[in-house]
Design goal:
Length: 107
Amino acid sequence: MRRCTAIRPLGVNWAAYDTVFIGSPTWAGSPAPAVNSLLQDADLAGKRVYLFVTSGGEDAGKVLKLLSSRVAEKGGEVVGTFHAASNKAQPGEIGGRAATWAATLGV
Ligand SMILES: Cc1cc2nc3c(=O)[nH]c(=O)nc-3n(C[C@H](O)[C@H](O)[C@H](O)COP(=O)(O)O)c2cc1C
């Protein structure tokens, strides 16, 4: 599903960035509609893109694949991903894992 929803204009000057992080929860096995809207308007040509996805169950990998293909359509290159399922995590665990991941990226 590529359903979009109205989002407030981000006012982002994409040209000012060479690396961007895009995250989404998993909704019905897909990115959330607000993230679809963001991707529709994003100019990712030549950019390095990190993706991060949360899920309640096991669907985050599928969402990462969907987001990866949309980033490629927009000319970006996915250089790293993070995903975590809350059904198997203790409170605070995912935040700690995300921080550890971010610390390895050197950005
Ligand atoms: C409308 C809705 C649909 C969802 N659909 C899925 C799903 O298909 N698969 C899944 O693993 N988790 C699903 N979830 C769980 C969310 O992915 C999970 O709550 C979210 O990633 C964790 O972020 P949060 O702490 O902001 O809720 C759904 C949650 C909502 C609210």
